[in-house]
Amino acid sequence: MIKSYKVKKSLADTIIYTLLTIMGAIWVFPLFWIVMQSLRGEGGNYVAYIIPHNFTLKHFIDLFTEKVVFDYPRWFLNTLFVSICSCIISTFSVLMVSYTFSRLRFKSRKFFMNFGMILGMFPGFMTMIAIYYLLKLVNLTGTLAALIICYSAGASLGYFISKGFFDTIPRALDEAATIDGATKNQIFWKIILPMSKPIVVYTVLTSFIGPWADFILVRIIMGDKTPNYTVAYGLYTMSNDKNIKKFYFQFCSGAVVVAIPITILFLNMQKYYVEGVTGGAVKG
Amino acid sequence: MDNGSMNAFQKVLFKIKSFFVGIPKVLFAFFFAIGNVLYKYGKRFKDGDFAVKLSYIIMGFGNAVRGQIIKGILFLLAEAAYILYMVSFGWQYISEMFTLGTVHRSIIEMVDTGSSRTSATLSTASNSMLIMLFGLLTIFITVAFLAIYVISTKSAFKVMQTVKEGKKPATFMSELKELLDSKFHCTMLTFPSLLVGIFTVIPLIFMILIAFTSFDSNHQYPGFSFQWVGLENFYDIFGGNAKKAATFVSLTKWTLIWAVFATFTNYIAGMIVALMINKKGIRFKSFFRTMFVLSVAVPQFVTLLLMRQMLNKYGIINEMLTTFGWIQTEVPFLTDAFTARVTVIVVNMWVGIPYTILITSGILMNIPEELYESAKIDGATPVVTFFKITLPYMLFVTTPYLITQFIGNINNFNVIYLLTAGQPTNLSLYNAGDTDLLVTWLFALSLNKNNYNLAAAVGILVFVVCAGVSLLTYNFSNSAKNEEEFS
Question: Are residues B208 and B290 in the same domain?
């Protein structure tokens, strides 16, 4: 009886190992494939094998040196600049708003919270045309500043997750500090923020990654102003039906270059990411 | 009936009922609040002395005469700035809001360019879009000004009372200091609200208004202005225009099918994988985890563009299948209506399962071990255990997450747009393809066809669906109820 149980168990484990390996392979395959493509020395865009016959770093060198049509290095710096700026602005506004809603009690608090929630339910694309015209009024279309504003302006509407976190910090701390004569301002900067590392990291991480992944707003704001593109929209332009034949390898190597820093960042911070999401979104 | 004795279904009904009962209450509270402000505004005027009464016309007067000079001057400046703005700029746009411009395009002069051809110089029609945008801005500025105005009367009254009680009015510095303590919420909210106000609220109201106009490709500046058309766009969608109505129905169906499949395939499959990885006795846990998590870390647009290349007619997958001799002709992954729909759902699993693994792993580990053990003693197979223990438990804990995912999928733009861009085009639909969701249709309508009014109407309808679902969810989740737990 015990023996057969063991056999059954090891059989189950074997099945699980096999399944996990197959699935893992499926999940890693596209990523592996694009890395191999970016290293492929021989031409031909669509080939039926995965491992290249000749390895080369030529495409990466091309990517950073051939800047006539698509200036990838500049896109990369654009994206870095935009994401650092918008990350600072959005992190501060999200934390400020969520702290206010979590800790301070004032008359129109509930109204503001519900209003923010309702705003968040409209599809984002609806407003983009209007935003475009607004930016055009102040002559900001086609600039990186416009991107920064757009990415960070609505950030504070996503206050739920960090508010959920602040709600879990005992209020006794605030009260004790108040008795010691601290103002609300001091409590925020000196007590709550230092205690909130996970949620700060989460907010920074998500708002930093945002601009690396967006290609819609860039398209609307930048139009055909290619030098001001970010990597996401730049790669999107490279991969459309008109360009892909010519820029296939540049697209592949460009995708690898943008994926590497984000992947490293994410893998190192995933603990905070999971804490952030599950802390805010999943509450029995 | 109290909450404890109801079953899940009754609870849902109860929540829905209390939600709808709540709507009039909220509306009532809103109007009550406005009425209250007006009442207090009038009462202050009645009870105030001459200086207070004068501050109702000259803002800040009451403050200035009682020693709060800086504050008084600031109020006065606000009033002056507003009046200047209205007279020089704002009024004209407000007055045109009703018609959205009445100037039509006309021929200024005809020039004979020889060989019986003439070229005409045309004047421009009114720019309705600009009128609306500026009109809206002016309305916003007016509302903000009215708020400042009411605050100024309040402040004048308050300082009168303080002086009457024989106290010294607060100095400007001490009031500034208050902004860091008892009025800290004002300090904290000002900057974010300004950003949200300008870049979310105004554009949103603008687009909502657009849904009630005729702003489409035939009404573009400088040729033609557009007008208010009332509910015509909604009427079109709900049957007035056969093609638009058919498109709306067909896309709504597909959007819902997509949302259900995309949400639940990811949720269930992701949980099963997470269970497999975390099963006792399985080794290399972190290795397997990383294999999956890698695809979350790589930016979504990269992997999706990649998938599009791979699933292309001559892409690697078709090439390999042909080489292996498994298929004779290329599989139309992204070009046949049904196949494309299946493909996007499957690719979405590739995108979404690792995410579910990340989120659910921790919660899965929290399911009490005894439950599983007693099930095992009773001879339950793993499948039965999953459906009888794991799934109900997880559904119970992660309902809010699930519904957020569902709404996210209704609005899931990236997967569809990057993979198929709504293709294959379906000529029986109005500017849409077979895999188009409502949001991608909205996007195509406004960007490719300049059909802003229809797009805005669709946006409002998507909002109605999402808002219904999420407000219900919000009422469900304990995070709303237990908010004050730590206070």
Answer: no
Domain membership of residue A253 as a residue range: 59-281
Residue B23: per-residue pLDDT: 74
Residue of A nearest to B288 (CA): A24
**Distance between the two ends of chain B, CA-based, in angstroms?**
29
**What is the pLDDT at residue B8?**
55
> Are B211 and B310 members of one domain?
no
Task: Say how far apart CA B19 and CA B316 lie, in whole Å.
Answer: 52
pLDDT value at B104 more than 80: no
Same domain, A28 and A71: no
A93, A9: one domain: no
SS (H, E, C) chain B: CCHHHCCHHHHHHHHHHHHHHHHHHHHHHHHHHHHHHHHHHHHHHHHCCHHHHHHCCCCCHHHHHCCCHHHHHHHHHHHHHHHHHHHHHHHHHHHHCCCCCCCCCCEEEEEECCCCCEEEEECCCCCHHHHHHHHHHHHHHHHHHHHHHHHHHHHHHHHHHHHHCCCCCCCHHHHHHHCCCCCHHHHHHHHHHHHHHHHHHHHHHHHHHHCCECCCCCCCCCCCCCCECCCHHHHHHHHHCHHHHHHHHHHHHHHHHHHHHHHHHHHHHHHHHHHHHHCCCCCCHHHHHHHHHHHHHCCHHHHHHHHHHHHCCCCHHHHHHHHCCCCCCCCCCCCCHHHHHHHHHHHHHHHHHHHHHHHHHHHHHCCCHHHHHHHHHCCCCHHHHHHHHHHHHHHHHHHHHHHHHHHHHHCCHHHHHHHCCCCCECCCCCCCECCCCHHHHHHHHHHCCCCHHHHHHHHHHHHHHHHHHHHHHHHHCHHHHHHHHHC
Q: Which residue of A has its CA nearest to B282?
A: A13
Note the pTM of the prediction, 2 decimals: 0.81
* B334 contacts chain A (CB < 8 A): no
**Best-predicted range by mean pLDDT (B133-137, B311-315, B463-467):** B133-137
- Same domain? A106 vs A173: yes
Domain interval for residue B160: 22-103+122-230
Domain end, chosen from B178, B201, B230, is at B230
- Local structure of residue A131 (DSSP, 8 states): H
Same domain for B53 and B159, yes or no, is yes
A171-175, B345-349, B431-435: segment of lowest average pLDDT: B431-435
Residue B13 domain-assigned (yes or no): no
Smallest Cα distance from B404 to chain A, Å: 8
Query: Given an 8 Å threshold on Cβ–Cβ distance, is A134 in contact with B319?
Result: no
Taking contacts as CB-CB distances below 8 angstroms, the residues of chain A near B482 are 283
- Asked whether residue B321 is assigned to any structural domain, the reply reads yes
Q: Tell me which chain A residues have a C-beta less than 8 angstroms from the C-beta of B359.
A: 274, 277-278, 281-282
Residues B267 and B221 in one domain: no
Domain of residue B267, CATH code: 1.10.3720.10
Query: Is residue B2 scored above 60 in pLDDT?
Result: no
pLDDT tens per residue, range B388-442 = 888 888 877 777 778 778 888 888 888 888 888 777 777 777 877 888 888 888 8
Q: Does A64 touch chain B (CB under 8 A)?
A: no
ipTM of the predicted assembly exceeds 0.85: no
pLDDT single digits (tens) A178-205: 898 888 888 888 888 888 888 888 888 8
Q: Residues B466-484: what's their mean pLDDT?
A: 60
Put simply, the answer to whether B184 touches A104 (Cβ < 8 Å) is: yes
- Which among A30, A171, A244 has the least Cβ separation from residue B486? A171
Q: Per-residue pLDDT tens for B138-168?
A: 998 999 999 899 989 888 888 888 888 888 8
